[in-house]
Amino acid sequence: MQVEIRQERPEERRAVETLVRDAFWNQYAPGCMEHYLLHILRSHNDFVPPLNLVAELEGEPVGQCACVKGKLWGDDGAVCTVLTLGPIAVRPDFQNRGIGKMLLARTAEIAKELGYPAIFLTGDPAYYVRYGYLPAEQFGIRNGENCYAAALQVLPLKEGALTPGRYEESGAYLVKEQAALDFDRQFPKKETRTGTPSQLRFLELAGRVRPAK
Ligand SMILES: CC(C)(COP(=O)(O)OP(=O)(O)OC[C@H]1O[C@@H](n2cnc3c(N)ncnc32)[C@H](O)[C@@H]1OP(=O)(O)O)[C@@H](O)C(=O)NCCC(=O)NCCS
User: Fold this and answer.
1) Half-sphere exposure at residue 210, Cβ-oriented, CA atoms within 13 angstroms
2) Which of 25, 91, 106, 127 for mutating ligand 1's site (highest number of atoms within 8 Å of CB)?
3) I need a labelling partner for 46 at 20 to 30 A (CA). Which of 40, 53, 160, 172 fits?
4) How far is the CA of 127 from the centre of ligand 1 (A)?
5) Which ranges of the chain have pLDDT less than 50?
6) Tens of pLDDT along 45-69?
7) Which domains does the chain show, CATH number per domain?
């Protein structure tokens, strides 16, 4: 399988949004908003274009991964710019063939070249642990609400760069639900479902949050 990981091209934006929609549909909620999220992220100041990657197979995008600048507010008063990874998606008919792994590896490589100290993400630790992501709690890092969250993970890219503090993701990730629903009407209709196993797992993970003392 000859997969090329490269930067997204403007002319394939809609095709990439479609694959994001297909991958996320009914995964974490009935329907999904991630295709709209990617659509608005691209024009946000915190978006990092060199890390807006596509996995291409036989001339078609089959996966994508995007990153946005976030902040780590250290308890010692130091503030540093970090990355937030997401969305990441692989077209359902190409999942489980290592494309997600390739996207994560290339993202880490480029992020390191660009000098970022760490990549944060919110996702299922069962998946990301195998690619070097660690629980943020291990570094004394809490989320924006000053809580330890099981889903918050980090990939350190520089020795000793991570100190205890609060990680804050960019406001770029705030999605207006009605705008997302309106945007979705531009795509073919799809059936929504509730109570899927991945939705239940998401709820369970989202509940594993504990305020810092
Ligand atoms: C998550 C995703 C990007 C992974 O891409 P992929 O190309 O299928 O991943 P890889 O081939 O590198 O890895 C597949 C392995 O990860 C496992 N895996 C995938 N998603 C997982 C999850 N949420 N939890 C635990 N394991 C997971 C698969 O079972 C498979 O395991 P195996 O190698 O033991 O068979 C893809 O499944 C996807 O697009 N999912 C829907 C969108 C999504 O959830 N994005 C992430 C949001 S945080």
Assistant:
1) 9
2) 127
3) 160
4) 6
5) none
6) 999 999 999 999 999 999 999 999 9
7) 3-169+196-211 (3.40.630.30)
